[in-house]
Amino acid sequence: MTDYAGDYGGGFPLTCILYEGAITVSTSGTHYAGGKNKQPSFAFAAEISVGDYVGLFVDTANTLAATTGIPVVTTVATTAPIFGRVVTEPQWANAPSSTTSTWAADLARGAYRKAIVEFFGVTAAHVAATSGDSTALTLGCPVKWDLSANGWMDAGTTVTAAFTFHYDANTAASDVLIGFSAVPMSTGDADCIGYDTIT
User: Fold this and answer.
1) How is the chain classified by DSSP, letter by letter?
2) Largest CA distance in the chain
3) How far apart are CA 195 and CA 189, in angstroms?
4) Does the pLDDT of residue 9 top 80, yes or no?
5) Measuring CA to CA, which residue among 146, 147, 142, 131 is closest to residue 180?
6) Least confident of 38-42, 60-64, 112-116, 166-170
7) Is there a contact between 183 and 120 (Cβ–Cβ < 8 Å)?
């Protein structure tokens, strides 16, 4: 929540990784960090700033292990529907020294920024086991509890009030971050939670 009138927050706050597309590094400029101007400078293909709406970034690289349990968000699109809003200034996890290539590589070396995101309509989130039924859990998809397997499984496109913040192949029981929310699936991506956007 901010100190500005008309900005009342009320979402579920989580620290998130920001996917901002390819990051171009240039030694001809500076960036501001820790109260100082430092080299190099960075240009983002899809920069995210405080106050921006964001959606979940659906990518198979975004597993619980690869993200250290942190959700990954990206700029809003029809396939990345609005699900939250950035409420703190983005900070580098590990500023890259050269132009980035692939998201999986960036994720592995921590070449991304993080910020706190207030997620709309989310009431709780915790790490829990998957069912291991070999049906992959795509990031943002609704899930349901499998009594016999004692774990979460894919629910297709049926809203269940539970969803996954991470991708999991689900070939064996493993952990994902489960969120609880009555937010619907979007028409832009019927298997990803979020509010519809119009382009």
Assistant:
1) --SSTT----SEEEEEEEE-S-EEEETTS-EEETTEEES-EEEETT---TT-EEEE---TT--TTTTTT--EEEE-BTTB-B-EEE-S--EESS--SS----HHHHHHHT-SEEEEEEETTEEEEEEEEB--SS--B-TT-BEEEETTTTEEEE-TT---SEEESS-B--SS--EEEEEEE-PPBPSSSTTSBSB----
2) 59
3) 10
4) no
5) 142
6) 38-42
7) yes
Rg (CA), the chain: 17
Quick one: tokens of 44? Answer: 């983002």
The full length of the chain comes to: 199
Integer Cα distance of 96 and 44 in angstroms:
12
The two three-digit tokens of residue 59, written as one number: 């990518």
Computed over every residue of the chain, the mean pLDDT equals 88
